[in-house]
Specification:
19 strands, alpha+beta, 4-stranded antiparallel sheet
């Protein structure tokens, strides 16, 4: 059976700058990253998995982390890897570790434990690696497969889902493996999700894959930690640590040994069971058992924002990874993405280390003010004790780099105001909806039920917000342009809110005009449709001050 060389064989689909798609091996993906716009993977949650489990650690281990912003700048301004750097990458992936990137190698299959065998001797279908396909307790709605169905994965698909499982696998019970001294009754319990399943992942992106790799490369003045090795070089880790080999069935609960170890953390022991078919090598079955457990997400984790707690409970860290919320666009979370300051005396969000670094690079004029920065967010929501995947959260967002400069907050405050205005307008619209329901003789909708008009409003203005953010990436220091942009945003938000209010008013019965009286906090309160609309309009004028002034000026000129 062929071993499938991930270094040279084309398994990773890449979209080039001219829009064509090529299947490249790991070496060409890195050395030709300057002509690649993005990777083309089956699901968005694979992007950070490939970035963390392969591309970034190879880059960092082969070339080293930049020791200063000046060194980072020199790499970035070249726009591509120099011939010397490309040569070091080639040597790393061919001469030094080439034999460790073979997917079906008998002795050292990439990212797997060779010979991994379940205690009961069984193998599971390959659907176990794919969260959107039914397998065991994980039974997604509307899945076209049942657990009895087979899913034949080509080698290119299998390695992607292998990386994905190491990052995002579900928690709970895992198959006990032969040689695992901690397995009991044929299984292991208490397994957490994969490391990324505990984060709200934030990945900055650039114009090319090369720039994306640099934007995700932290500046480390002291370099990588001594003894820090990626998973394919586990045998080079200091024996004094006493950690279990990811190439065997044993595992341990331990801290990350450094950035390389964190990025390539092996949270599962996996073996792909491959077979020859008429279509080539296919993976139909797998063995998945318990892997290493991360004792705690370290504060060096580059791809997440944080929740800071001024007075944590005993045994809890003051900073914990911040997760994304389903049903909310990325721009609705600007408060966390742009939280550059951290108060030790109060609770609040704190943005990711990489976004803070990008702000520092802009402050030093390493990155131009009009650099087209993008941000990709991703997360999985789990249910039933994290044993099943209930929802995937993914989004992309244009973000002005000027807003990330800690010492210059004028643009950042403006963006936060825009996001807050949308949130407050949505709440005002929901308030009108509640008042109209009361005026009609009903009760307000519970917070977690029903079709809320604020959701429709935020969806209606989503494109406008993204267009505003993209336009402000080239703002420079044009304050007048910012003011015009904010006014246009407020007018858009006002018009969308009025349209939704009109829809609500058209649906209420005639008796809402007369309304009814209810006791609220012991007082008689009259609810009428006209009164509700008046309160709503007053709130809109308070929230959208520029739009109100623009309408007043227009009415005055017309008179």
């Amino acid at each position: 059976m062929e071993k499938v060389d991930l270094v040279g064989e084309g398994w990773l689909a890449a979209v080039t700058l001219d829009g064509t798609t090529e299947n490249l091996g790991l070496l060409r993906t890195l050395t030709e990253a300057h002509r690649i716009r993005r990777l083309d993977v089956p699901v968005a949650t694979m992007q950070p998995a490939v970035l963390r489990q392969m591309l970034l650690p190879v880059l960092l281990d082969a070339l080293g982390a930049p020791r200063s912003r000046r060194e980072w700048q020199q790499r970035f301004e070249r726009g591509q890897f120099s011939p010397e750097e490309a040569g070091r990458l080639t040597t790393y992936l061919t001469d030094r570790y080439g034999d460790r990137f073979r997917l079906f190698d008998v002795e050292r299959p990439f990212g797997q434990a060779a010979g991994l065998t379940a205690l009961n001797g069984e193998v599971k279908p390959s659907t176990l690696l794919v969260p959107s396909v039914a397998s065991g307790n994980n039974v997604p709605l509307f899945s076209a497969f049942s657990e009895a169905d087979h899913l034949d994965l080509a080698a290119a698909q299998a390695v992607l889902w292998l990386l994905h499982a190491q990052c995002w696998d579900t928690a709970a019970i895992k198959t006990g493996a032969v040689g695992d001294s901690q397995a009991k009754a044929g299984k292991t319990t208490g397994n957490p999700t994969g490391p990324l399943g505990q984060l709200g992942v934030i990945v900055p992106t650039g114009r090319t894959l090369f720039e994306t790799l640099l934007l995700n490369t932290p500046v480390l003045p002291d370099g990588l930690e001594a003894g820090d090795r990626p998973q394919w070089a586990w045998d080079e880790r200091p024996a004094s640590l006493g950690w279990k080999s990811p190439a065997g069935p044993e595992w341990s609960t331990r801290p990350a040994g450094g950035l390389l170890d964190l990025l390539t953390f092996q949270s599962r022991r996996i073996r792909l069971v491959a077979s020859e078919t008429k279509q080539g090598v296919r993976v139909r079955q797998v063995v998945v058992s318990a892997g290493d457990r991360l004792a705690q997400t370290p504060e060096t984790e580059p791809h997440t924002a944080w929740n800071h707690t001024a007075k944590p409970k005993p045994g809890q860290p003051p900073r914990r990874p911040r997760r994304h919320m389903s049903g909310r666009a990325a721009w609705q979370g600007l408060g966390a993405l742009l939280a550059l300051a951290l108060s030790q005396d109060s609770d609040g969000p704190y943005t990711s280390a990489l976004l803070r670094q990008i702000g520092d690079l802009r402050a030093d004029e390493v990155l131009p003010a009009d650099y087209p920065l993008g941000v990709e967010i991703s997360a999985l929501e789990y249910g039933n004790q994290s044993a099943v995947v209930e929802n995937a959260i993914t989004d992309t967002l244009p973000l002005p780099v000027v807003s990330l400069v800690a010492a210059d907050d004028w643009l950042r405050l403006a963006l936060l105001e825009c996001a807050e205005q949308a949130d407050r307008t949505g709440r005002a619209l929901d308030g009108l909806h509640a008042d109209l329901r009361r005026a009609s003789g009903g009760e307000p909708l519970p917070r977690d039920r029903g079709d809320r008009p604020s959701v429709r409003l935020l969806h209606a203005v989503d494109t406008s917000m993204r267009r505003l953010l993209a336009g402000l990436r080239s703002i420079g220091e044009d304050y007048d342009l910012l003011e015009r942009g904010q006014q246009a945003w407020e007018l858009t938000l006002f018009e969308a809110a009025v349209r939704e209010a009109d829809v609500l008013l058209a649906a209420v019965p005639a008796r809402a005009v007369v309304g009814r009286t209810e006791k609220v906090n012991g007082k008689d309160v009259v609810f009428r449709s006209g009164k509700g609309v008046g309160v709503f309009r007053m709130r809109l004028n308070e929230i959208l001050r520029r739009a109100a002034e623009a309408r007043a000026a227009k009415e005055a000129s017309a008179a």
